[in-house]
Structure formats: structure tokens, C-alpha cells
Specification:
GO biological process, one term (chain B): vesicle-mediated transport
Distance between the termini of chain B: 48 Å
Helix content of chain B: 10-25%
Oligomer: heterodimer
Strand order of the largest sheet of chain B: 11-13-9-8-23-21-16-19-18
Number of helices of chain A: 43
Subcellular location (chain B): Cytoplasmic vesicle, Clathrin-coated vesicle membrane; Golgi apparatus
CATH topology of the largest domain in chain B: Immunoglobulin-like
Number of strands of chain B: 23
CATH architecture of the largest domain in chain B: Sandwich
CATH superfamily of the largest domain in chain B: Mu homology domain, subdomain B
Keywords (chain B): Cytoplasmic vesicle, Golgi apparatus, Membrane, Phosphoprotein, Protein transport, Transport
Structural class of chain B: alpha+beta
Number of helices of chain B: 7
Membrane topology (chain B): Peripheral membrane protein
Shape of chain B: globular
Structural class of chain A: alpha+beta
Helix content of chain A: 40-55%
Largest sheet of chain B: 9 strands, mixed
Order of helices and strands of chain B: EEHEEEHHHEEHEEEHEHEEEEEEEEEEEE
Strand content of chain B: 35-45%
Radius of gyration of chain B: 26 Å
GO cellular component, one term (chain B): clathrin-coated vesicle membrane
Strand content of chain A: 5-15%
Shape of chain A: globular
């Protein structure tokens, strides 16, 4: 007879029957009943009503029955916390049972009962079990500490369990050590600032010893823990590597990957000329290749990681191309990943083979796979110059197949090939044009339009081709619209006589009839450019484009480094930092690779990792968003096959807009040492109309444009009727525009003084039964203080004050109790200063600097929230080395840059610098360019985040510009607010 | 993290993922399957699902942290292994029939998301299907659970002490349509069936080139193993330092080690094929198979599988030896040759009709695959030189060695 019978009783009144059976005197009947209950629970029925009856069965000497009752308890205790208390006695008793299986079972189950009241009773039994003579009980108890910490972290700390857990790392039994390590790592993860896993050479040695003896899973825990350690020097690094390498021969893929992680990380510290370094590189290849014979899911994880590894250290697998050839029966996700790696490993030496394979794949049936294979051919062309010709002819062959998606994909990559080898393969344009009608995907249409615009002068009927797209302009996707706009403008600049009508048409479609701000803005900019200075327009729009880089989808180096530290984990599978997909991990410090040997730089210097990086700096991804110049040059087609997500989410519209006007226009026009033309002209609202009448700029040469542009009445008419919306969206001076945007951005934020803002009322007496609290924050001698005035506006005395903070973005917490020693009488006030630490629990707040506070007195508990100026968190050692600053500035992606304006500030740059220095904003360098002072500044937050700033001060101009760069762009807004407050007070 | 076998059974090891989250799994999976973007990791909000499929069951692990993904998949496969050893078949019924044991196992296998004891032999010592009665003798924790030697119990006794060693090499080959070998490698595996008493210490000697170089010996043929993977019983650091394979073996059957050899091997059975497709009328297939191995050896149970279009009909075959059979559900012809001596060459011709109305669905280009077994022979030339067995009682034990070479992933692409 099997257990399945328990699933079949689904009659009504079942609960009642079960109740009777549970209370039966017969042991067998009881057990049967409990089994039925568990079966019901398993299929999702609510049997919580039987709680007291099931708990009554707990006191049994039948192990199987006991396990079932415990299982029931774990499931329902949370919903019935009061009744769960009934079980406590049995638990405590079971923890002393002579049978270790029962002791372990009890302590394991108790930890799974997430009821606060029970956890208190758990402490004593747990303490005993942690010292139990049987290792099976100890290893179970070790895990239980982590469980308890998850429920009540404070309790675990107060009871000293963490120390006991640390002691277990020296336990004689390897399994106990492994579980203690696992538990500590788990706890440390939720406590980023704690020094829990205080790893030192002694503990490392113990871990390495246990590594040889424990189970495969234990080895993974230990290796993952080792990966967090930073060796003191290359010698230590090497000796750890030597002891970890044998793990590469383990049959369990997860052990191998965790070992690879440790080795990849510690290898950073080894000097490259060391023999051992070469040996280690050689040792890494075979196990990585063997991972490809594991189960498909494990292969997938391995391939995602190999993708990272070949980007970081291409030399490891450069001879292993063949193992990545796709097999017919590989699952699609494995096929796609293999393709990606094949392209990364493609080189002159193996390109012939690779191309033959790719051509084979391009005739398969799986659409996604075929598309990727076609793209891969294009990428090979771009990567290996010698193969370009062969790739192009392969692509043309594929276009001849007329398979719709193959053709489209081929056109997209051919566009990239044109970018890389301009004026080399134009002969194929005719073939491409033949396929114009079959293109129905935006990306392919956009690519084709780009090609037509770019080579307009060679395509006789370019205007017809483009016009045909224009008919359905509003049905096209934004990508195609933008492309069409630019292509027609290019065409116009190349063949102005025949295409005026076309360009007017597209400009009006883009500006008047479109709701899309990007399209409108680009339309206006072209319009303005064409109407004010056609020569400049030509220079800008038809400028020589930077060549496309070899690898267009490399992971940004800092992210890559972080991902290398997460080999084997989900982060390495997603190619995203954990903070992007794990809730509550925002404040957690990003993992970095250790610096290279002998660099002498401290570990927290953000530059060390990249200094040790690959010798040639990987070329940047296609121009960053918000780069107006790039936009105008029309380089914004999606890079080919972006497999990974964009490095970091851009900080939203507001930031992009500011950058567009601030940085974009500056770089567009700033190079000419004359004032930008736009503001000059815009003092007349109808400015575009004036364009053709205004005197030509010095370098204006009408002949170049066929003499038609400058003063032709037709042109005048064309550009002279701007849509009415135009003046509004193009307000006179550029700075005005910025101010407008900036006002949207929230300069009206919180009221705040300078270094220490004046006290404001946080908690009005009305809301707090007569207690009024006003206060401020200050940083005094390196200590953050919360300075408060407590006023008693009630009729009775207030005593017993205490304070607590909610979790907050930077882990602020009271460093001691609130010192209110005397009772506060009616109408009395008392001043208190509460020193704060930054080692409390972290949770990202909105706004970032929000602090939720609870204050208690003899009357009640009151809650309020306040915001602290982020400058409170600037630490005293926030001055960065010049070189490091430079490298870091470059290293941080442009997406993370934020620009702000500070209005009405009347300090000169030196005064500003010294004022900021008082708040730990350090000026590292100063540069004066054409009367404009640029101050380069750095500051460091208590959690180790660096913020880099460039402050531009123009003599006589009360408006400053601050550009902030930070790896955590969320803080920029707060930092800016602090800048404003510091400078103005 | 919690385990979930459909909605059959689940165990929430931590309280951090809501049990209801699993309801999102199936729709999500379906959606991805439809879009052809199947992926072993799926996510819904902040919850990530990592799943594997075993017959008709999905084993799903969920997490909301940055978990070690390779650990999760290894564990899921281990789970399948353990359940299969307990219940023979892992399927819906076996879970329902044994749900009490399943719960017990899930508890022992993992605690709070940390995998614990996953060796089914050891688990069977204290979790049994009859339901453990609380007899003092039986309910002790086997010391093995937490021992450094966690894979072998003490007190094993055999009347006759023997070890059977199987050396099995699988050949993976990928041949291009124009007949060039794209990649080939050998994956070898050494399996043990241990029937030894007590706690024996074993040492295995192979003709490993690195070992020979270390000891300065250079007579006879040696083999270079690219990458070696060992069962957890083998002392890895010992192997790393002096290439000695020393271990205390698990009882019964186990895979001691596996290795990969990258050297270019001649495909043992070479296939030349001409497949001609005349649209709307017929397909003609000619396949020539040649045994490229020693004349004394014989390949057994050779199967050459040739793909045919899914709409082919009225098969006709002619073979110089063996049997050809049309397997319409797999769209292939299977040509079976029971015994295929080295150096010989055989021929098969097949003829199929094609319908005049063509199937417009695109079909892939499946390769020709070959299966075979050649006993008493290893392609790499690997040899077991000795197996030393030392046990403190001093018994005499006999090692038996058997060699076999077989096809692994053996694919030859075709032109059609």
C-alpha cells in the first residue's frame, strides 16, 4: 500500500473526521491521520484548523510521526502564533533528547518557525546544540543561527551567537565548518558593513584545510567565502591559488566554477611575468572546456561565465574555438551563447573555420539562431579586417536566399560594415536597394535608410527611395523616423537643388506633426542649423564619423570586474550587478577585483582594478546616450547584437535633457571661440525667419551649396514659417533653458542651510502629545551628530527618552542612547546632541537622505522623518590622488554624469573651493580656460562611494555649473543640493 | 529558496519567497516557450526561477537573492539522482506514493537553502521507506554523515573481495558536409563496482604521460589527459602534487573519474553519404560506412541513422549487410549492423517517394548520427597498470578490468 491513498479522501466533513482520528488512542490511527493532514496540506488545502490536535501528537516516540508533525508546524505556526507556543515545551525537551537525530530535528525545525515569541525560547536550546558533542547536531545548529538571524538579527547579536558561529570555523568536523561558513556568509550578506567574516591568514588557512575534507557543497560554500578575501600580497595570493587549483578536477560543475571564481580574482594580484601566472592560465582552460559536457542548464551557466572570462582574459581560451561549435541537438539557449563566444574568440588565425560554421548556421531553421548567425558574420567582418571581403560576399549570398529575416538581418550588419570600412563596399548598395520592399522590421528599415542617406550622392534615385518611406512617416517607429529625418537632411546637404521640398516636408512632419520629443528636438535642431548656418550644418551633419569599434557589445570594464567576482551566481548569468535585480541591495558595496601586484594602491581606491586590467583599454561602446553630437551624426542605431543590458539605467529624462543642452550644445558649439550662434539670434522670437537675411558668418560660402541656400526666396519661405510652438520650446538664452529644466528637476527641494542647516521643527507638539522636537544635523570633528531641541509643551513631566532609527540609505544609527538625564518639565526645553554611526542596517530610502525616526518617552512613541544633507557623510579622507581622479573620471560611464546649475552664487573660485573644503569636498586641481575656472573635486561618502565633481565658475557670471560623476548616480541629486547649500551659506 | 515539483510537493527552506510565487512559473515558461526563447532562468518581479525538466516533472528552485546558479542546477540534478535511487522512477506517482519519505529527504538534502547530505547510499542508512521505527540501534546518526569520509560506511563485509573496473571511452565527432572533421574528442570514464570489506585504501595506476614524465619513466605508450574530474573520494591535492590517484572507494557502483582527450582521432566509423532530393518526386540516399580501426577488433550494434524529409513515403532499401528500417516518427532511416569488423566497408541504398504537394514548413538539417560499441579496445590507448588494494585486515582482493569504446556525440552533417 502506498502513500497516494492519503491524497484521495476529499469528502465533506473531512476535517471533522480527521480531528477525531487525531485524538484517537491508537498510535497507528493517529499516524495515519497525521499523514492525511500532511497530504491535504501538500495539495494546498487549509488544514490549519487542526492545529491543536496535530500539536497534541507531537509528544511521540515515533520519529516518522514526529517529523510529520514538525512539518505541519513549520507550515502553519506563522498563521497561529499563539497556539505555536504550545509546541515550545516539546521542542525544548527534544533538544535534550539522547538521540542526536531528534536533537538536530528539533533545532532545525525551531529555526523554521518564524514566530517571534518562539524565537526567544529557542536561544537556550540553540546555545546547547551549538556545543553538542555530535557533529550532526552542531552542523544543524550552525545553520539555525542564520535562520534565527533572519527572523531577529538583534537577538542573535545580543545572545552572542555570532561569536559562537565564528568559533565553529575552527571545529574539528569539516561539515560543521562548511555550514558555519555558509551561515556566516549568509548573515554577512545582509550586513554589508559588519566585519563578520573577518578573514585573516589564520582563518583562511583553516578554510583551506577544511576544503580538502568536506562534501562537494561544503567546498562551494568555502570557495565562495574565500572569493571575498583580499590577500595581502602576491605571495599569499599565489599560495591560496595553489591550494584551490586541485578543485578544478572536481566532478561537480559548481565546485569547478566557484574555484574558477577564486582563481580569476586572485590572479589579478599575480605579476604577469611570474611563471606561476602562466601555469595558472593554462590550468584554467581544460576545466572550462569540460563544463561544456555537463547538463544543458549547467552548460548555459558555464557559457555565460565563459563569456565574461574571455572578455577579461581572452588568452585563456583563445585556442579552444572548436569546442564552441554548435551541435544540432544543443538547446537553443546553449546555441545562442556558443555563437556569442565564437565571435569573441574569432581571430585571423581561425576566421576561415568560423565563417564556414556561421554560414552553415545561417541556413538552419530556428529564426533567432539564424539571425544571430547572420549578425555574427557581420561582426567577424568588423573584427577581423582580413576577412571583411569574404564576410561581405557571404552576406550577399545570404541576401540572395530572399529569406525575409535573413535579408533584413544582413542589411543591418552591412550598415555596420560600412561604418567600419567606409567607401569600400559600396558596390553592394545596388543589391541592397533591390530588397527595399521586403524590409518590414524597423531596425532593417532604419539601417537601409541610413545607407541611402550616407551614400546619397552615389544613388541616383536616393530622393525617390527616401520619399517612398516618407509616405507612411507617422506609422514608422521612432528609430526609423529619426533615421529618415537625418538621411533626408544629409541628402539635402549633398544635393540641395532637387530636394528642398523633401527636406521641408520631413522637417515639418518631425516638428509639427509629431508627439515624440526626441524627434521634435532633432527636427528643430536641424531646422535651426540649416537656417542659421548651412555650412556649420554641413560640417556637423556630414562630418567624418568615428569608426565603429571592433567589439560593440563588450561589457563595461567596471561592471565586468564586478561580474567576475560573482562567477557562478545569477549575476553572472544575467550579466547584471546583483543590485540590479536583488531588492534591498542598493547600499551594498559593489565587489571589485583586487589591485595588481606591487601597485601599492589601497584596495578601496576605485582605480586599482582597471589599472590591473587588460592591457589595451577596450574601445567604448557606440557613443553614449545624451551625446548630442553623436545624435546629430546619427550614430544612434542600436549596436549590433547587444546581448547584455545597457550598463546602467540612465537616470531618466530629466538628466538626459540637461545633458543634451548643457554638454551637447557646449561641445557642439564651444569649440569655435565665438559665442554660440543660437542665443545670439534668439533674442528675436521669430528668429528663423531672419536667418536668410542676417549677414553670413565669416566662413559662409554659398557656392559650396549651390548658391541656393543663403538667400533664395524659396529657402526663406521654407524655413521662414516655423511652427508656432517653436519659440516656446526654444527659449532665448541657453542658460535660461537650463534653468527651466533645472527648476523641474527640483531645486525647490528641502530647505537646508550650509554646512549645518538651521534647526527646523521635525515633530510639532500637536502631533506628539505635547513634545516638540526641532533639530539639525552636523558633522563635528568627523562625527555625525543629530542636534535636537526637545521642548515639553504639555502639562506633565516627560522622562525616559529613547530614540531609534528605521533602516536608511547609509546605515545611520545612534552611536549611543539618547542622553536626556533629567526629566523635562512643562514648558522646559533641553538640548541634546546624539552622535551617529554609519554601521546600522541599510535600506534604500526615497528620497535618498530620508531618515525615519522613532522617539519614545514616558507618554508614548512618536514617529517623524527628516532629511539630512548628504554633506554630513563626506568623510575626511575624501581627497583623491590626481591620477586616480583622472582615471576614475574616465572609467565612470558617461551615463552616470549629471550636470547642474547653481544660480546666484557670488564667490570666486578660490573662495568656493575653500568653503567646500570645510565640508570635506576637496579640490584636486584647478584649470582656467578662457576666463572660466574649472575646479576638479572629489568627496567620499561614509559607505565608500566616491563622487567626482567638476565645478565651472566664470568670472562675473553668478551661475556655476557642476558636473557630477559617480558610480552610484542616485546620489548625484543630493550631492548637488548640498553643493548649493554649502556655497550659498 | 524552495523546491517545487510541480504543485505536487514543495518545501520552503527560507521564508523569503512567497509560496504563491510558483504560480507564475508555468505561465512564464509557456510564454517563453512560445516565443522560442526558452531559458533555464526565468524571473518574475524579484523572484528568479531556476528549473530543470525530468520526464514530465519540472523541478524548480526559486530565489530572490543573487544565488549561486551552478550550485542550484547541480543540486537539482542531484535531487533527481537521489529520488531515482530511492523510487526507481522519478515521476508524479512515485512522489505521491512516497510523499512522507520525500519530505524527509528534502529535509536532509537541504537546510535553509544550503545543500547538506546528498549521497543516497548514506541517506538510505537512516531514511528508509518502511518508516523508521524508533529503535535505539537504528536511529543513530550514521557517523558517515558528518565524517570526512562521507561516502562510505564502516563495517561493510563481503565474502569474496573484488573490484570491477570499467574503462569506457566515448568518441565525439563533428564532421562537416564536405567531409572535414570540425572537432573530435574522447571523453573517458572509469567506473568501479566495489565489493570490498572494511575501509580499503585503493591506488589506481594508469599510463598517464604526466605521471611517467614525473617519475622519469618513458617506456611504453602513454596518454595525455586534458582534463580529469574525480569522484569526491579521490584526494585531489595528492593528485595535484604527484598524480597519484588514491582513494577510499564508495561501496557498490560509482564513477571514479572522467577525463577528456583532445587529440585528433580518426573517426572510427567513417560515413560517406550522397543524398539527392528531387523535389515533388523522390529522395535517393546512398551511404557508405567504413570501419577505420584494427582488423582484429569488431564494432557491435552499429546503427547509422540517416535523416529523411518528414513527408517522405514508400521506402525501399538495399544493403550489402545488416538491416535498414524506416522510423517515420523520427524522420530517419536506421541501418543496423550487428557486427562490423575493422577495415571493412558496407553500403546502403534507400529510395523514398515525395508528395507532389510540398510541405511549406521549413525543416532543419539534422546530421547523420552513428552509434557503436567496440569492446576490448580504447582509442586513446589508456591502460590500467595496477590497482593496489590495502585494507588493515590484510585480505587479498582481485581487480578486474574491462575496456570498451563507444560512440558519443557522433554527428556528420549532410548537404540536404
Amino acid at each position: 500500500m502506498t502513500d497516494s491513498k492519503y491524497f484521495t479522501t476529499t469528502k465533506k466533513g473531512e476535517i471533522f473526521e480527521l480531528k477525531a482520528e487525531l485524538n484517537s488512542d491508537k498510535k497507528e490511527k493517529k499516524k495515519e491521520a497525521v499523514k492525511k493532514v500532511i497530504a491535504s496540506m501538500t495539495v494546498g488545502k487549509d488544514v490549519s484548523a487542526l492545529f491543536p490536535d496535530v500539536v497534541n501528537c507531537m509528544q511521540t516516540d515515533n520519529l516518522e510521526l514526529k517529523k510529520l508533525v514538525y512539518l505541519y508546524l513549520m507550515n502553519y505556526a506563522k498563521s497561529q502564533p499563539d497556539m505555536a507556543i504550545m509546541a515550545v515545551n516539546t521542542f525544548v525537551k527534544d533538544c535534550e533528547d539522547p538521540n542526536p537525530l531528534i536533537r538536530a530535528l528539533a533545532v532545525r525545525t525551531m529555526g523554521c518557525i518564524r514566530v517571534d515569541k518562539i524565537t526567544e525560547y529557542l536561544c537556550e536550546p540553540l546555545r546547547k546544540c551549538l556545543k553538542d558533542e555530535d557533529p550532526y547536531v552542531r552542523k544543524t545548529a550552525a545553520v539555525c543561527v542564520a535562520k534565527l538571524h533572519d527572523i531577529n538579527a538583534q537577538l542573535v547579536e545580543d545572545q552572542g551567537f555570532l561569536d559562537t558561529l565564528k568559533d565553529l570555523i575552527s571545529d574539528s568536523n569539516p561539515m560543521v565548518v562548511a555550514n558555519a561558513v555558509a551561515a556566516l556568509s549568509e548573515i554577512a550578506e545582509s550586513h554589508p558593513n559588519s566585519n563578520l567574516l573577518d578573514l585573516n591568514p589564520q582563518t583562511i588557512n583553516k578554510l583551506l584545510t577544511a576544503l580538502n575534507e568536506c562534501t562537494e557543497w561544503g567546498q562551494i560554500f568555502i570557495l565562495d567565502c574565500l572569493a571575498n578575501y583580499t590577500p595581502r600580497d602576491d605571495r599569499e595570493s599565489q599560495s591560496i591559488c595553489e591550494r584551490v587549483t586541485p578543485r578544478l578536477s572536481h566532478a561537480n560543475s559548481a565546485v569547478v566554477l566557484s574555484a574558477v571564481k577564486v582563481l580569476m580574482k586572485f590572479m589579478e594580484m599575480l605579476p604577469k611575468d611570474l611563471d606561476y601566472y602562466g601555469t595558472l592560465l593554462k590550468k584554467l582552460a581544460p576545466p572550462l572546456v569540460t563544463l561544456l559536457s555537463a547538463e544543458p542548464e549547467l552548460q548555459y551557466v558555464a557559457l555565460r561565465n565563459i563569456n565574461l572570462i574571455v572578455q577579461r582574459r581572452p588568452e585563456i581560451l583563445k585556442h579552444e574555438m572548436k569546442v564552441f561549435f554548435v551541435k544540432y541537438n544543443d538547446p537553443i539557449y546553449v546555441k545562442l551563447e556558443k555563437l556569442d563566444i565564437m565571435i569573441r574568440l574569432a581571430s585571423q588565425a581561425n576566421i576561415a573555420q568560423v565563417l564556414a560554421e556561421l554560414k552553415e548556421y545561417a541556413t538552419e531553421v530556428d529564426v533567432d539562431f539564424v539571425r544571430k548567425a547572420v549578425r555574427a558574420i557581420g561582426r567577424c567582418a568588423i573584427k577581423v579586417e582580413q576577412s571583411a571581403e569574404r564576410c561581405v560576399s557571404t552576406l550577399l549570398d545570404l541576401i540572395q536566399t530572399k529569406v525575409n529575416y535573413v535579408v533584413q538581418e544582413a542589411i543591418v550588419v552591412i550598415k555596420d560594415i560600412f561604418r567600419k570600412y567606409p567607401n569600400k563596399y559600396e558596390s553592394v548598395i545596388a543589391t541592397l536597394c533591390e530588397n527595399l520592399d521586403s524590409l518590414d522590421e524597423p531596425e532593417a528599415r532604419a539601417a537601409m535608410i541610413w545607407i541611402v542617406g550616407e551614400y546619397a550622392e552615389r544613388i541616383d534615385n536616393a530622393d525617390e527611395l527616401l520619399e517612398s518611406f516618407l509616405e507612411g512617416f507617422h506609422d514608422e517607429s521612432t528609430q526609423v523616423q529619426l533615421q529618415l529625418l537625418t538621411a533626408i537632411v544629409k541628402l539635402f546637404l549633398k544635393k540641395p537643388t532637387e530636394t528642398q521640398e523633401l527636406v521641408q516636408q520631413v522637417l515639418s512632419l518631425a516638428t509639427q506633426d509629431s508627439d515624440n520629443p526626441d524627434l521634435r528636438d532633432r527636427g528643430y535642431i536641424y531646422w535651426r542649423l540649416l537656417s542659421t548656418d548651412p555650412v556649420a550644418a554641413k560640417e556637423v551633419v556630414l562630418a567624418e564619423k568615428p569608426l565603429i569599434s571592433e567589439e560593440t557589445d563588450l561589457i563595461e570594464p567596471t561592471l565586468l570586474e564586478e561580474l567576475i567576482c560573482h562567477i557562478g551566481t545569477l549575476a553572472s548569468v544575467y550579466h547584471k550587478p546583483p543590485s540590479a535585480f536583488v531588492e534591498g541591495s542598493r547600499g551594498v558595496q559593489h565587489k571589485r577585483l583586487p589591485g595588481s601586484a606591487g601597485s601599492g594602491e589601497s584596495a578601496d581606491s576605485p582605480d586599482t582594478g582597471s589599472a590591473a586590467g587588460v592591457s589595451e583599454a577596450p574601445p567604448a561602446v557606440i557613443p553614449s546616450q545624451g551625446d548630442l553630437l553623436g545624435d546629430l551624426l546619427n550614430l544612434d542605431l542600436t549596436p549590433p547584437t547587444t546581448s547584455g543590458p545597457p550598463p546602467a539605467p540612465s537616470s531618466g529624462m530629466q538628466m538626459g535633457a540637461m545633458d543634451l543642452l548643457g554638454g551637447g550644445l557646449d561641445s557642439l558649439m564651444g569649440d569655435e571661440s565665438e559665442p554660440p550662434p543660437v542665443p545670439q539670434r534668439t533674442d528675436t522670437p521669430q528668429s528663423p525667419q531672419l536667418s536668410h537675411q542676417s549677414p553670413s558668418p565669416p566662413d559662409y560660402s554659398p557656392t559650396e551649396l549651390g548658391g541656393d541656400l543663403g538667400g533664395s526666396p524659396a529657402m526663406g519661405a521654407g524655413f521662414g514659417a516655423p511652427p508656432t510652438a517653436m519659440p516656446a520650446s526654444f527659449p532665448p538664452p541657453v542658460s535660461g533653458g537650463l534653468d527651466d529644466l533645472f527648476d523641474l528637476g527640483g531645486s525647490v527641494g528641502m530647505p537646508m542651510g550650509a554646512y549645518s542647516p538651521p534647526k527646523s521643527i521635525w515633530l510639532p507638539a500637536m502631533k506628539a502629545k505635547g513634545l516638540e522636537i526641532s533639530g539639525t544635523f552636523a558633522r563635528r570633528a568627523g562625527v555625525i551628530q543629530m542636534e535636537m531641541t526637545l521642548t515639553n509643551k504639555a502639562m506633565s513631566i516627560m522622562t525616559d527618552f529613547a530614540i531609534q532609527f528605521n533602516r536608511n540609505s547609509f546605515g545611520l544609527a545612534p552611536a549611543g542612547p539618547l542622553q536626556v538625564l533629567t526629566p523635562v518639565g512643562p514648558n522646559q526645553s533641553i538640548e541634546v546632541a546624539l552622535p551617529l554611526s554609519t554601521v546600522g542596517p541599510v535600506m534604500k530610502m526615497e528620497p535618498l537622505t530620508n531618515l525615519q525616526v522613532a522617539v519614545k518617552n514616558n507618554i508614548d512613541v512618536f514617529y517623524f522623518s527628516s532629511q539630512y544633507p548628504i554633506s554630513m557623510l563626506f568623510v575626511e579622507d575624501g581627497k583623491m590622488e590626481r591620477q586616480v581622479f583622472l582615471a576614475t573620471w574616465k572609467d565612470i560611464p558617461n551615463d552616470n554624469e549629471a550636470q547642474f546649475q547653481i544660480k546666484d552664487c557670488h564667490l570666486n573660485s578660490d573662495a568656493a573651493s575653500s568653503k567646500l573644503q570645510g565640508s570635506n569636498v576637496f579640490t584636486i586641481a584647478k584649470r582656467t580656460v578662457e576666463g572660466q575656472d574649472m575646479l576638479y573635486q572629489s568627496m567620499k561618502l561614509t559607505n565608500g562611494i566616491w563622487v567626482l565633481a567638476e565645478l565651472r565658475v566664470q568670472a562675473g557670471n553668478p551661475n556655476y555649473t557642476v558636473s557630477l560623476k559617480c558610480r552610484a548616480p542616485e546620489v548625484s541629486q543630493c550631492v548637488f543640493q548640498s553643493y548649493e547649500a554649502m556655497l550659498k551659506n | 529558496m524552495y523546491m517545487h515539483v510541480l504543485v505536487l510537493i514543495c518545501r520552503n527552506y527560507k521564508g523569503d519567497v512567497d509560496m504563491a510565487e510558483i504560480d507564475h512559473f508555468m505561465p512564464l515558461l509557456m510564454q517563453h516557450e512560445e516565443e522560442g526563447l526558452l531559458c533555464p532562468v526565468l524571473s518574475h518581479g524579484s523572484v528568479h526561477f531556476m528549473w530543470i525538466k525530468h520526464s514530465n516533472l519540472y523541478l524548480v528552485a526559486t530565489t530572490n537573492k543573487n544565488s549561486n546558479a551552478s550550485l542550484v542546477y547541480s543540486f537539482l540534478y542531484k535531487l533527481v539522482e537521489v529520488f531515482t535511487e530511492y523510487f526507481k522512477e522519478l515521476e508524479e506517482e512515485s512522489i505521491q506514493d512516497n510523499f512522507v519519505v520525500v519530505y524527509e529527504l528534502l529535509d536532509e538534502l537541504m537546510d535553509f537553502g544550503f545543500p547538506q547530505t546528498t549521497d543516497s547510499k548514506i541517506l538510505q542508512e537512516y531514511i528508509t521507506q518502511e518508516g523508521a521505527k524508533l529503535e535505539v540501534a537504528k536511529s543513530k546518526v550514521p557517523t558517515t554523515v558528518t565524517n570526512a569520509v562521507s561516502w562510505r560506511s564502516e563495517g561493510i563485509k563481503y565474502k569474496k573481495n573484488e573490484v570491477f573496473i570499467d574503462v569506457i571511452e566515448s568518441i565525439n565527432v563533428l564532421v562537416n558536409a564536405n567531409g572535414s572533421v570540425m572537432s573530435s574528442d574522447i571523453v573517458g570514464s572509469i567506473k568501479l563496482k566495489t565489493m570490498l570489506s572494511g575501509m580499503p585504501e585503493l591506488r589506481l595506476g594508469l599510463n598517464d604521460r604526466v605521471l611517467f614524465a614525473l617519475t622519469g619513466r618513458d617506456k611504453g605508450k602513454t596518454v595525455t589527459m586534458e582534463d580529469v574530474k574525480f569522484h569526491q573520494c579521490v584526494r585531489l591535492s595528492r593528485f595535484e602534487s604527484d598524480r597519484t590517484i588514491s582513494f577510499i572507494p564508495p561501496d557498490g557502483e560509482s564513477e571514479l573519474m572522467s577525463y577528456r582527450i583532445n587529440t585528433h582521432v580518426k573517426p572510427l566509423i567513417w560515413i560517406e553519404s550522397i543524398i539527392e532530393k528531387f523535389s515533388h518526386s523522390r529522395v535517393e540516399i546512398m551511404v557508405k560506412a567504413k570501419g577505420q580501426f584494427k582488423k582484429q577488433s569488431v564494432a557491435n550494434n552499429v546503427e547509422v541513422r540517416v535523416p529523411v524529409p518528414s513527408d517522405a513515403d514508400s521506402p525501399k532499401f538495399k544493403t550489402s549487410t545488416g538491416n535498414a528500417k524506416y522510423v517515420p516518427e523520427k524522420n530517419m532511416v536506421v541501418w543496423t549492423i550487428k557486427s562490423f569488423p575493422g577495415g571493412k566497408e558496407f553500403l546502403m541504398r534507400a529510395h523514398f517517394g515525395l508528395p507532389s504537394v510540398e510541405n511549406d514548413e521549413l525543416e532543419g538539417k539534422p546530421p547523420i548520427t552513428v552509434k557503436f560499441e567496440i569492446p576490448y579496445f580504447t582509442v586513446s590507448g589508456i591502460q590500467v597498470r595496477y590497482m593496489k588494494i590495502i585494507e588493515k585486515s590484510g585480505y587479498q582482493a582481485l581487480p578486474w578490468v574491462r575496456y570498451i569504446t563507444q560512440s558519443g556525440d557522433y554527428q556528420l552533417r549532410t548537404n540536404v
